[in-house]
Amino acid sequence: MEKSERTELGMTPQAMRRLAARATEVLIDRIGGLDGGNAWDGEFRKVLEEQLGGPPPEGGRPAEAVLEQAVQDVLPYAARLDHPRFFGFVPSSPTWPGILADFLAAGFNINSCTWLVSSGTSQLELVVVDWMRAWIGYPETAGGLLTSGGSGASVEALVAAREAAEHPARPSVYMSDQCHSALQRAALIAGVRREHIRLVPSDDDFRMDMAELRQRVAEDRANGLQPVAVCANAGSASTGAIDPLGAMADFCAGEGVWLHADAAYGGFALVTADGRECLDGIERADSVGLDAHKWFFQPYEAGALLVRKAEHLENAFAIGHDVLQDTVWGANHPNFADRGQQLSRAARALKIWMSVQTFGMAKFRAAIQNGLDLARRAAEYVESSSVLELMTPVSLSIVCFRVNPDPAGGSCDEAALEKVNRVVLARVFWDELAFFSSTSLKGVFSLRMCIMNHTTTWEDVHRTLDLVEQIGQDTLAEQ
Ligand SMILES: Cc1ncc(COP(=O)(O)O)c(C=O)c1O
């Protein structure tokens, strides 16, 4: 075939270098400029459609121009989840070695599906999963895999639980009303009917109410349902609440039901002494889901699922396939594709491994402790304010609070307070100093800060709370 007849999707080394250098420069400028810019930017669809819509071009255009358009018209329209004053939802602040690891893994075109296809990253996955095993306090018989995130880990956990229970015909799953929606979705995917997913009322501290759990499981058994799993919050996304893990483990052991701990948000607090104490009992769960793209400073996607008995995953997921028959290397050479839902898989272990190797655990521990400490200080600030009310005890790094002219708790008009706080949230948003979001505490509107960025300082938290207080006072004065 003549060269001119070939399709050609390659680039010259010079063009590759130029483009990569420009991308690197853009990223370094972005990261360096985060503190000086807004914590959020976004645009309406109509505007973006005008800029970005249209059919694919038949002929290409210069790669530099395409890159610049992505940098100008696409990428900036996003929450800056790694901004030091981004406190909304669950922030994420990846380290540079982690970011480069994703670039390298894409460039090396790694598919971490089987040992044969990528032994290097499979070995790394064994290594980082084993680090997590030790942080949880699991025995050496535990094992796991890296997943897309907490949602992926929840699906795999509940499928494994269902299989361990021998795939009953009428399965039911239990979780508190504070559990993440990802767990309900996972239960649905695992084949549990919507009406058999029990959202058990939580207690006044937003923790699983054990009496309610016991009652529901007993009622369901009496009605012919087969409970397959109980899900525990090991740091709920709303308030950071941690369910009574020990009591839940006792209950599940007695019932012969799988206990899954959702530690997607809070799990990496385990590497600190404070976090370990808060999450005591997690090692008794049958499975634990963690998200390194949350409190372990990795780029998306970096979830993990660990199970106390490693074989449960392969029992649930391993399926032979003719076309993959050459990939079986034996027990010491696991094929991670046999432990979960994905065959083609990104090399997620590389980013975790490279960033931990670069900075060392002491720095990771200190960065996580920073979030715990800042949340406590933020709560103290709120408690000493004459217009802010702490709504829940601080748990891990989440602070729920609201503007209230009488925080000490006189009679209050909930509807009026909600109105004020919605206005405050909107005004803080448009002020652009910081970003935080709200939650609903059993129907009561609450502002919420989640503090877990390794670059966030007390100054960032303090300035944000000052602003809320100021805006709160102004808003109350207008009412
Ligand atoms: C407690 C908790 N569980 C599960 C999830 C879902 O995780 P992911 O978004 O990684 O799928 C989240 C996400 O914020 C979470 O906070």
Q: Can you describe what's shown?
A:
With 479 residues, the protein is α/β, with parallel strands linked by helices. It folds into three domains: 12-41 and 78-94 and 360-479, Aspartate Aminotransferase, domain 1, CATH 3.90.1150; 44-75, no CATH class; 110-359, Aspartate Aminotransferase, domain 2, CATH 3.40.640.10. The protein has helices at residues 13-33, 45-52, 63-74, 96-107, 119-136, 150-164, 181-189, 210-222, 245-255, 273-278, 292-295, 311-317, 348-359, 361-383, 414-431, 458-478; strands spanning 143-147, 171-176, 197-200, 226-233, 258-263, 287-291, 303-307, 388-390, 398-403, 437-441, 444-450. The strands form two sheets. It has a seven-stranded mixed β-sheet, sandwiched between helices. Strand 10 (437-441) and strand 11 form a beta hairpin. Pyridoxal-5'-phosphate (PLP) is lined by residues 90, 149-151, 180, 182, 236-237, 262, 264-265, 291, 303.
